[in-house]
Each structure stands twice: as C-alpha cells, then as structure tokens.
C-alpha cells in the first residue's frame, strides 16, 4: 500500500490534504556505537513529512532510518527524531492515526531501497584518477583538462559518480528496530508555534502514553509476536514505569531498554548515538572526557543532565524484532529525493526556518513548498483526499417499560425532632 492510500485511511473523510515526503540521499555514516570488534557498515537516510490543509502546513514528522550491515545479517533502525503540530488545521485530524500511517509506510520500504546508491563517507582515491578535486593542484588540473581536450572525453560525470557513490548488497536477514525519546516541548519543528492558543501541547506523561499507544499499534499489527519492546524512564522506579505499560496490547512490553548487554557492559558500545538526542549528547561528552561508564552508571548519570532535572516525564521507548508486514520499494510519486544533502536541507528549511506565531507562517511555508517543487523539480505537491470517517458512539438506550430508580438523596438524612 502506497503513501497516499495509507494516509487516506487516516485522514478525515471529505477533506483534501497536501503531502510532502522528502528523503535525503542515503549516506555512509560512522557506526552508531563504538564496537570493540569489527564495525558494521552503516547507511543513514532522513525522512521528512509535512501535511497541509487549506494551504497551511500544520504537521511535520522527521525520522532517520539506519541500515547496519555486518556479514550476512543486518539491522534496520528507525529513529523517530521529531514530530510537531502547530494548531493551524481547520479540520479535526487524528494526529496519532496519521503518525501511525507514516511510520507504517516507512516500515514497508524495502531496505534495499537505501543501498542502491549510497554516498561514500570518503571519496575513493582510486576512482579519482583523471578527476579534479579540491586536493588537485593547479598544474595537475591543467594537465587533466588538456588530456580531456585531446581525447575528447569532456563528460566525466560517470567517473565522478563512481568516485562519490557506491552500493551494498541487502542482507537476507535483518532485525527491525524502533527507537524514540519522548519529552514535552513547546515546539520541535514549528518555531514560535506555542504562541498559537489552538496548539495542543501534551504534558510529559500524556505524551509518553501517546507514543506508547502509537508504537503498540504497530507492534500488534506488523511485528512478530516474539518482538522485544521496552520502556525506560530514567530515574523512575520500575513500578511507576510499569504503570505506563498497563494499557498496551502487545504482550512482550517490559521495563528496560532494547540496546542489549548486561548492566555492567560499557555504555559507549551499547547505546547508539542518534542526532539531536539527549542520550547522544551525553555519549559525546563521555567520549570527549575519555570515560566509558557501565550501562547502569550511564542511566544513573543521565538523570543528572539538564534535560532530566526539570520535573518533566521523559521516556526511552524501543522495540526490536522481526517485521512481518508488506515490504517493497516506494513508488517514485511517494517521495522526493533531492540530489544532495544540501538540497534536502534547503527544501526542508522552507518549513523549519519559518515562524509560526500566527497562521501567516503556516501559509507562507506551504506557498514556498509549492513554488519550490514546481519551479525546481517540476512536480506538484501531492494531494490526498481523506477517507476515514468516525462513527459516533450511540447514546445509551433505556428500556421504556422499566421505570428508572429514583436516587433519594434524603434517605439517609437524620431529621431533627420537633420541639414540644
């Protein structure tokens, strides 16, 4: 099922929505953890979604997908980086249902999609022969240009492509992992949107329950029953953490994390470093200080960080297991992949660099996106018509032949006796 079909089932019936799905070029990255042995090959790509209604952007989601290859096995990691609304939608939208549809679409993408054309972490020196690079001096550059002119080989795009890009075989077996960090903030992707009285900002505990329910829905419908799912609230008692797991339906939720290892394992070899993540910032500080505490000490020290000392409930949510849902490469109309990371950031900034204190910012962001897609890429903003209809709950019925019992509020009152 494509992106439009999934969103149509999640968005309110009878209303039109514009959808933007950006994907950055797949790029080779350093490993997520400091592995002591052979480091896995790591490829990352960022996805950015927006939803618009009545020519106003009102929702955005950012997810980073990692493909980690080690031999014939691998991991696919989906890190939910940021999600935000700004309150400028004119119709009532079930944001949780829409978020679940977008995550379901990302899970349905075949990992081989990211491995066919991967930007190298470092340009291959052997493939740079005959190419002019920043390291080429002036004399050699002139010699190369003269050689091209003599041979008539003036088009070097194929050679440059080989030097900059590579490909990897898709592992036949891989584990799918979900990871996210929940913390209530006035805004994540829509700057100044907290000034809009219509924006609904959830407190930390309700935000955690919201994300738990969203991940739980995915686990129930798209993952093997043996999948491991865990919740950790740093600094919180296990009994309190377990209380948040009572409403979930997937049976294998537990208190803890899904990064593996024992409590005494070094944290730098177990905890992945995600971008713009409090755990990742703490890991960077530890590496800079030359320290590598155990997992037990890591979670204890993490509580002392500024992000955790403000009395706001934060949660580390994770799952790891076998994805059993449909899997295919996305259709070309389901995403826009700019040619370079800089181009990807340029388009995304039309949304994230705007100010949303008023509805004018949401309208301006939508107008800029429409113009950019049309003038720069020659495509129109994809449009989806919602098909999800909510059935109102029937009012409780009462038997007409049965007379309702009267609630006598004075039955147990003690009355004073009249004076003689």
TrEMBL record:
Residues 385-407 are annotated as: Disordered. It is an enzyme of class 2 (transferase). GO terms for cellular component: nucleus. InterPro entries: HAT_RTT109-like (IPR051236), Histone_AcTrfase_Rtt109/CBP (IPR013178), Rtt109 (IPR016849). GO terms for biological process: DNA damage response; regulation of DNA-templated transcription. It is found in: Nucleus. Its main location: nucleus. GO terms for molecular function: histone H3K56 acetyltransferase activity. Pfam families: HAT_KAT11. This is histone acetyltransferase. It comes from Eremothecium gossypii (strain ATCC 10895 / CBS 109.51 / FGSC 9923 / NRRL Y-1056). The lineage of its organism: Eukaryota, Fungi, Dikarya, Ascomycota, Saccharomycotina.
């Amino acid at each position: 099922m494509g992106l439009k079909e999934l969103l149509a089932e999640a968005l309110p019936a009878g209303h039109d929505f514009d959808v933007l799905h950006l994907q950055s070029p797949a790029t080779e990255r350093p490993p997520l953890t400091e592995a002591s042995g052979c480091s896995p090959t790591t490829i990352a790509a960022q996805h950015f979604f927006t939803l618009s209604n009545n020519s106003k952007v009102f929702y955005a989601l950012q997810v980073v997908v990692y493909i980690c290859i080690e031999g014939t096995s691998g991991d696919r990691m989906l890190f939910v980086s940021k999600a935000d609304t700004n309150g400028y939608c004119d119709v009532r939208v079930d944001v949780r249902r829409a978020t679940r549809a977008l995550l379901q679409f990302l899970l349905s993408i075949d990992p081989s999609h990211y491995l066919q054309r991967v930007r190298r972490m470092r340009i291959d020196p052997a493939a740079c022969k005959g190419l002019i690079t920043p390291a080429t001096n002036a004399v050699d550059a002139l010699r190369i240009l003269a050689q091209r002119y003599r041979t008539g080989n003036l088009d070097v795009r194929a050679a440059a492509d080989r030097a900059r890009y590579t490909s990897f075989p898709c592992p036949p077996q891989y584990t799918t992992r979900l990871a996210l960090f929940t913390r209530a903030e006035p805004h994540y992707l829509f700057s100044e949107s907290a000034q809009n009285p219509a924006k609904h900002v959830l407190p930390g505990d309700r935000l955690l329950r919201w994300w738990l329910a969203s991940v739980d829905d995915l686990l129930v419908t798209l993952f093997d029953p043996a999948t491991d799912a865990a919740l950790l609230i740093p600094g919180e008692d296990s009994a309190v953490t377990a209380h948040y797991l009572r409403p979930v339906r997937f049976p294998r939720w537990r208190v803890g994390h899904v990064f593996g290892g024992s409590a005494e394992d070094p944290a730098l070899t177990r905890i992945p470093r995600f971008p713009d993540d409090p755990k990742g910032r703490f890991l960077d500080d530890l590496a800079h200080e030359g320290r590598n505490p155990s997992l037990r000490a890591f979670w204890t020290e993490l509580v002392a960080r500024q992000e955790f000392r403000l009395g706001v409930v934060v949660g580390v949510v994770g799952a790891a297991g076998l994805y059993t849902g449909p899997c295919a490469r996305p259709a070309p109309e389901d995403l826009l992949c700019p040619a370079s990371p800089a181009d990807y950031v340029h388009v995304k900034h039309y949304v994230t660099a705007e100010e949303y204190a008023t509805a004018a910012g949401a309208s301006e962001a939508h107008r800029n996106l429409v113009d950019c897609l049309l003038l720069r890429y020659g495509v129109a903003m994809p449009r989806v018509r919602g098909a999800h209809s909510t059935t109102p709950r029937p009012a409780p019925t009462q038997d007409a032949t049965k007379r309702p019992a009267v609630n006598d509020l004075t039955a147990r009152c003690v009355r004073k006796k009249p004076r003689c």
